[in-house]
Amino acid sequence: MPTALTADALDPLIGAEPELVQAALRAIYDQQSDPLDLDGVAAAGRGIGKTPGQMLAMILNEDKMAGSFIAFLAARNHPLDSAAFGEMIDGIKADIAATLGPLVGIAFDEAKLARFSLQSRGFRCRIKVNGRMAGSGALISPRLVLTAAHVIENPEGSAGDAVIEVVASDGLSYPARVAFVLPPHENERTGKLPPADAAATHCDVALLRLDHALGRRYAQADLPPTPVACRGKGPFILVHFPGGAASGISFGEVERLSADDLRQAHTAKAKNGSSGGPGFDADFQFIGLHQGKLDHVKRIVPFDRFAANDAFRAALQSDRDARYLWSLDGSPDGHIVIGRQDFFDALTAMVEGDVPALKGIWIRRQDIGRTTGLSFSHEIAVAFLDGDRAAHRVFRIPTGFDVPDLIGEIHRQAFGTDVPDAVPGVQEHETTHVAHDDDRAKALAARLDEAAITAGETWWFFLDNPPSGLLHETQVQLEHLVQELIARPHLRLILSGFETYELVEDVFETVAEARNATRPGLIAEHVGEFGPADVRLTVSEMSRAMGYGWSADVIDRIVKLALAGLPVSGGRYSAEHIGTVAEKLRDEARREEGIT
């Protein structure tokens, strides 16, 4: 991978793919503390007589972001330019010749090797433990990263649980937690093999779970349904970060004698930081994880050792089954969903139930003058929750001038009867309206939670944005209701709009932030714009779900055609164009599949 970028590479890219460049800048720079915008780069360049490419190259090189920028492009199967791509392939071929030259009859399909090299830049990851680089890993499903168990061990002398982060191909760090682990055997710490009776329980393998489905955004390493048959000595490809550096892939030999091998030796170049990197054979099929240099021999944990583990398979299948609604009815003719990944991440976290403080979603528009996405959010939530194994019930609650008694409206929808009056002492004629409604809200929330428990369900309350504001009395009730609903264990809340009201004290920006919270709150989903990455995710999911098998080139072409001619600002498109893009996607899907 080049260590420095040049204007010769960047100016043509900016001219042909400005949206892609903008998306890369948004991904690799912190948009709150250190934003970088392509329009701003171009303007700064004009001020000192530099082209956009010259200015951007200078900034990225000085910020040491060149590698992250290139990785972002590679994750989308987009080499920086043909010359750089050719140099990359020539370098790989030279590495192969240097390491495998003495072997007879070994050759790689160059086209497949090129695709694999680009794909690997998308799925490979660095693993950080307590803020320090500890090893390598690979995305193998939407939210799961495969690595070695010893990589994530808490360093000796560290207090508390290890803080684990995954650094993806976009250069950003994402919080992770352990979803599955089989530790190494103590024998291996002194270079020995584990005893045969510990072969199934001490495989030195772990799965890390992310809150964001990065595997849908970037590439995934495909794990074969069953381990690849052993054929003795053969070529070996290691995808890793030796010394924590993004130096590419390494080649060597691996000796695979039997499916009963506890560990298998290889000769690919590796250093500290390579542990947990996935290894592949000459056909680019996954065969095991690099464990390290033990007893002077570099070796892998064969996939045979953990492929059939029930917990491993269950974790992988569960994540692969995790829902992302690209279409409400699962077909290209249905209502197509674009740019709602944060919504699905929040729903997934709440359905799985491992973020106790997260009690709902607050959908907030960037332009409160538009209603795009608000009502549709109810349909998305219903379709998502209906597809889950657990029992959910969704109530859609209108607000506005025609709903003067919000507490009564919710009670009637849930129970079919008018709400009982407040208890003596806080009835309407005995106290203030605020105290009266506070007591009614508490009583209603308690009854709703009890009813949800009895039904064995989670009850969701979707509150529609008030079309023309709220009555003062309704606003007071809403404030009481929100506080009471989010405090109950079996109730969830989705606020659609309401941006001008102060309703919740704790509003989280990410699932990770909610995971560390102690008080209940809502996660904010900001709607109003979408980008090429959002469209690409929808197209990729359409291809996967429908079995189209579109290549990355086909997907990129469909995305470009769907966005062609639309007004764009900073690589982002207004939500008002989502309907147009969805219709274009349908047309292109039919054309690609020959459907008339």
Largest sheet: 6 strands, antiparallel, barrel
Strand content: 15-25%
Question: How far from one another are the termini?
Answer: 44 Å
Order of strands side by side in the largest beta sheet? 1-2-3-6-5-4
Please characterize this protein's 3D structure.
The radius of gyration is 27 Å and the shape is globular. Helix 13 packs across helix 14. It is built from 18 helices and 20 strands. The chain has 596 residues and is an alpha+beta fold. The two termini are 44 Å apart.
Please specify the SSE layout and strand pairing.
Blueprint lengths: L6 H10 L1 H11 L9 H10 L4 H11 L3 H10 L6 H19 L9 H14 E6 L2 E8 L4 E4 L16 E4 L5 E10 L22 E6 L3 H4 L14 E8 L9 E8 L7 E2 L12 E3 L5 E9 L2 E6 L7 H12 L19 H12 L5 E8 L8 H13 L5 E6 L8 H10 L17 H23 L2 E6 L8 H14 L5 E6 L10 E2 L2 H5 L5 E7 L1 E2 L1 H15 L5 H12 L9 E2 L3 H16 L3
Parallel strand pairs: 13-16, 13-18, 14-15, 15-16, 17-18
Antiparallel strand pairs: 1-2, 1-4, 2-3, 3-6, 4-5, 5-6, 7-8, 7-10, 9-12, 10-11, 11-12, 19-20
Helix pairs in contact: 1-2, 1-4, 2-5, 3-4, 5-7, 13-14, 16-17, 17-18
Quick structural overview:
The chain contains 18 helices and 20 strands.
Question: What attributes characterize this protein structure?
Answer:
596 residues; alpha+beta; six-stranded antiparallel barrel; six-stranded antiparallel β-sheet; 18 helices; globular
